[in-house]
Amino acid sequence: MRDSPVAGPGRRLLVTGGAGFIGSCFVREILGRRDGTRVTVLDKLTYAGNRANLAAIETDPEQASRFRFVHGDIAAPDVVGPLVAEADAVVNFAAETHVDRSILEPEAFLATGVVGVHVLLEACRAEAADGGLRPAPRLVQVSTDEVYGSVANGHARETDPLAPRSPYSAAKAAGDLLVGSYFATFGLDVVITRGSNTYGPFQHPEKLIPLFLTNALDDQPLPLYGDGLQRRDWLYVADHALAVEHVLIHGAAGEIYNIPGDTERTNREVVGLLLEELGKPWSLVRQVEDRPGHDWRYAMDGARLQALGWRNRTDFREGLASTVAWFRDNEPWWRACKSGDWTAYYDRQYGSRLANGLLVAELAAGDDVSSR
Ligand code: NAD
Ligand code: TYD
Asked: Does ligand 2 have an atom closer than 6 angstroms to the CB of 144?
């Protein structure tokens, strides 16, 4: 166990990618606790980064007094160095995160996921070499279950080999390997978390749940890739963010911790539950051309994190209901995401898919998908 907790008066966290979906949840949770922790967010504000995700902090004088926003790139050493030098811990959420976009344009995934992670590591190494009174900051690398690749049977453990299959997951795996190498070679205080598919308020509507939710609110078609029998393990965003904090405080240096969601569902099952929650018909669903290299199943073993004392708090139905309620109440937020460059992206990704889309029968309860 680490004897230097990162919460409390005077502690300084650098949260990279803190204007995104999970990072902003992490920042809102920590500052909302009003325990004196100070947070700097470093974010490039890509199409997925949004200052509005942090508005509740910036309009609350007490939280705002402990918060600073820096607009910048984790791959820029001159920006990163001074911020890392003043931090007690760095939590890296920054990444390009959408698999479909990594298939269309992979370059940015490498720039942030590989070069950016390396710049953060080098800045931590410079602090460790400095030999000053302050210890070098701990670095938490927020990674993903996708680095294990498609898991046909059982549950991936932290010691399993990496087998990424998309440019997104390959870039994340490269980042993880760099982080591990800086522990082995330079003894840096690093930890890696691997979260499963996350959902909840403030998620950019490019991802399955918010895309289908917002399309359904507009009675627009829902583009289901392939047969829709792919399986994901769903994790509520606050559980993901707080599990990352748990690892930051309690994780052992050099270790990796899976964060499963304990909710494995086929995509069809997820869409069915979502439509039920929305009161919208299955006839909105279209079966469309599959994603190339589509991973069939993600599943992870969470024993190591459980042994650290972590338990998820939000059950899937409850999390889905809060997510639907939030998107209903925050229409201007998601309409802004679905404007500007979004239209070109949507046409490129879905235009011909939807033109050739098929009506698809609802999966009957009890249909056997285990034979795949
Ligand atoms: P997101 O796309 O919502 O946000 C990413 C944030 O990083 C944005 O604010 C963006 O502006 C910022 N960013 C991108 N490149 C940057 C750069 N070079 N420098 C500084 N900031 C940059 O992502 P998310 O869903 O919140 O994911 C956060 C992290 O969690 C990612 O590392 C992702 O790989 C990981 N993760 C996500 C999920 C999921 O289901 N969303 C699951 C497991 C792990
Ligand atoms: P996504 O939210 O993109 O997350 P990931 O690819 O990181 O798991 O997709 C979740 C699942 O939903 C995945 O199996 C792909 C599928 N999907 C669709 O069927 N249609 C879509 O339009 C999207 C975005 C995803």
From this structure: no
Measured CA to CA, the distance from residue 21 to residue 238 in angstroms comes to 10
Nearest atom in ligand 1 to the alpha carbon of residue 259 is: 43
Nearest CA to 113 out of 163, 176, 172, 49 is that of 172
Write out pLDDT tens, residues 79-102: 999 999 999 999 999 999 999 999
Indicate whether 180 belongs to any domain: yes
Is it the case that residue 367 has pLDDT exceeding 70?
no
Q: What's 125's domain CATH number?
A: 3.40.50.720
Question: Is 337 domain-assigned?
Answer: no
Atom index in ligand 1 nearest the CA of residue 146 equals 43
Indicate the pLDDT class of residue 359, thresholds 50, 70 and 90: confident
Based on the structure, what is the number of domains in the chain?
A: 1
pLDDT digits (tens, 9 = 90+) for 174-223: 999 999 999 999 999 999 999 999 999 999 999 999 999 999 999 999 99
pLDDT range class, residue 358, cuts 50, 70, 90: confident
- Residue pair 42/54 in contact by the 8 Å Cβ criterion: no
Residue 7's pLDDT band, with cuts at 50, 70 and 90, is low
Ligand 2 center from residue 207 Cα (angstroms): 6
- Is 70 part of a structural domain of the chain? yes
Q: Select which of 127, 145, 233, 264 is catalytic.
A: 145
Backbone angles phi, psi at 137, to 5 degrees: -65, 150
Task: Tell me, yes or no, if 145 is annotated catalytic.
Answer: yes
> CA-CA distance, 28 to 140, in Å (whole number)?
18
Residue 166 alpha carbon, nearest atom of ligand 2: 6
The structure tokens listed for 261 are 């969601």
**Three-class DSSP category at 188:** coil
pTM: 0.96
Distance CA 84, CA 70 (A): 12
Cα(270)–Cα(266) distance, rounded to whole angstroms? 6
Mean pLDDT (whole number) for 253-265: 98
59 neighbors 27 (Cβ within 8 angstroms): no
Rounded Cα distance, 188 and 257, in Å = 17
Q: How many residues does the chain have?
A: 372
Give domain status of residue 113, yes or no. yes
The whole domain housing 151 covers: 5-204+235-262+294-315
Nearest bound ligand to CA 261?
1
